[in-house]
Amino acid sequence: MNSTLAPPRLTDKKRAAILDAAIAEFLASGYDATSMDRIAARANVSKRTVYNHFPSKEALFAAIMIALWNESEGADALGYRSDQPLKPQLIEILERKLHLLNNDAFLALARVAIAAGIHSPERARDMVARLGEREEDLTLWVRAAAADGRLKTTDPSFAALQLQALVKAFAFWPQVTMGQPALERAEQQKVAETAADMFLARYA
Fold this sequence. Notes:
Distance between the termini: 49 Å
Shape: elongated
CATH architecture of the largest domain: Orthogonal Bundle
Radius of gyration: 19 Å
Number of strands: 0
Helix content: over 70%
Organism: Pararobbsia silviterrae
Largest sheet: none
Number of domains: 2
Order of helices and strands: HHHHHHHHHHH
CATH superfamily of the largest domain: Tetracycline Repressor, domain 2
Keywords: DNA-binding, Repressor, Transcription, Transcription regulation
InterPro entries: DNA-bd_HTH_TetR-type_CS (IPR023772), Homeodomain-like_sf (IPR009057), HTH-type_TetR-like_transc_reg (IPR050109), HTH_TetR (IPR001647), Tet_transcr_reg_TetR-rel_C_sf (IPR036271), TetR_C_Proteobacteria (IPR039536)
Protein name: TetR family transcriptional regulator
Strand content: under 5%
GO molecular function: DNA-binding transcription factor activity; transcription cis-regulatory region binding
Structural class: mainly alpha
CATH topology of the largest domain: Tetracycline Repressor, domain 2
């Protein structure tokens, strides 16, 4: 059996090139001024190829944000473990989220998305809907812990959203809207630990 990894397929290389080109265009020109034509030219592919991978600019932008999130998670998402204490599990998940929120590219693209959404509420709703099509590992974890009887909530999605809000109040909104510096490692740990304590005090 040949254990050598297979080389990336051409279609995968083109998709990666499109994503890289789109990130560069969105950051350089903003959402409205970026076109699929310009993305295709920068990626050195045809416009038809871009549309074969992404049916619209909105879908392409959402794919970028999801790709950045997947990259921050690493190879495997952290699943709920019934045989381990809740707090260390939760802190580990939150620290991964904080790692993403410290990503300069993610923050820059979030600013692009917010600016685009201000000018077009309908577009903002579409972006949020597309991003919401994939449940984050935090929501899945809360849902699993609730199903196991270790969290007391009838609405795991709402509870997970509350927890995310605790984190983003320190590690997203100040950076995106006010240009505050990203949190240092010790600050990230403090936010993760205190948010976990507050969440578990309410729901555990």
